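[job 0412] stage=fold_complex status=start
inputs:
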Amino acid sequence: MKALIEIDKLNLFYGTFQALKNVSMEIPQRAITAFIGPSGCGKSTLLRTLNRMNDMIPGTRIEGKIAVGGTDIYSGEVHVETLRKKVGMVFQQPNPFPKSIYDNVAYGPRLHGIRGKKQLDEIVESSLRAAALWDEVKDHLKRSALSISGGQQQRLCIARALAVEPDVLLMDEATSALDPISTLKIEELAQELKDKYTIVMVTHNMHQAARVSHQTVFFLNGEVVEYSETEKLFSDPSDQRTEDYISGRFG
Amino acid sequence: MNESTRSEAPYSFGKRNSSSALYDRIFTGLVWGIGILVILFIVGLLFMLLKNGLPKLTWDFLYSIPSEIEEGGGIGPALFNSFYLLAISLIISIPIGLAAGIYLAEFAPNNKLIDFVRICVEGLSSVPSIIFGLFGIALFVEMFQIGLTILGGAISLAFLNLPMLTRITEESIRAVPVEMKNASFALGSTHLQTIRRVLIPVALNGLITGICLTAGRAFGESAVIILTAGVTTSGVMWDFNLFSPGETLAVHLWYVQSEAIVPDAQEIAQKATSVLIFIVLLINIVFRVPLWLNSRKTKS
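[job 0412] stage=fold_complex status=done
writing structure:
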């Protein structure tokens, strides 16, 4: 599979603390890549470098290169607002805005200049359909986004992220706060979305990674220990530490 | 394990042996009692202030001219000035206060200088208001030499409002959950877009409460007005001239109570008090309406 994102010798420092050490990998296009590892290993930090959300934390310093579609995203000519349109993110806690369902999904397109009602209506419908939420909310689009359940709110956040038509969807432990049924729905959703989007998901649930992803990356203490096709990593890992983690000896 | 407690029936869940349960009940009773007392006190105070003036209020009183010698004077020009000065001071101080608060919450770096600025803002919001009156005199009466005017009074009042508005804006914006900001930025918004479309709408309750408190305080302010806008009016209603003297209702109340020689001074003072209290309460209620509408729109 062709690589959409190439990470080359990436080092990240929060002040004096080094959170990522010499990370290099490729993330294939239109596939699901899972980042696994124990708490604090750097998987969420790496995820956040892909859409430069780390820029928001003062004192963060990057060395190395991250290229999305061939472009170094930390170079001076890259506008972070346009990058984030192409690389979207869904967070661990569902975080819909206290606005209506319609306005939540339409928020992104409106940011980028889309105003026509008909156009917005179409985008809202197609995004909610893509997030498998349309049938449940199509008669209540004007209701507050806070009035639906947690699992529905998270799918709303996915719809909201899809509305700006990204190429990459970053999911930062997106199902950790949800019940098993909602989790399953979102995993199925990810399987459907991978045909159009490149998905990178951070999960502390190894079984989820094994179920859903094509490629898995195992992190430990800010370093990439091993990455390969999911089946291979879980059945025949090359590194002893990987073996220990997936068999539950630590983490 | 203590033998004596083990010998009791293990599941009777009786009272604790220590006095902590008793202290808890005394405390609860005390808090209830004080709460009721405070409410009674406030209601009693309002009642006492309003009982003399409120029944005697007439529409006439509200817009007629005060009289220096005879009975039957009204509070028209002073009442008008109160609203006029309030409006001008809010028009000046709200945009500046909002911008300063947003700067401190969203853009200011975390260093000692900014900490010092915050301490200054905090200090200025609790300094006696007469300080702003003295500043106004130095600026308008002595430096610009325009004497005692509505303009001077309104601008001095704006200075009075600014620290409180800045602090409340900063607190309200900081109180917006960081997840909202993250969601907005992750969709590719600029800082201004996030501020306009997410931070301010979510912080709106706090912002409006802040404006409401500030307006209530400014409406009843007297020290600043006496020093910068004077104790007289131009004598006619609906005088929009910024350079007229600008006695407000609160000042007029003080004047009537302490200096006036008209025979019905006492009654005028009582009626003016009622009007003042009534309007401040009204300001608070009026500002609650958009809050209530806003919370209905965003309620889960």
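[job 0412] summary: DSSP finds ten helices and ten strands in chain A.
[job 0412] exit 0
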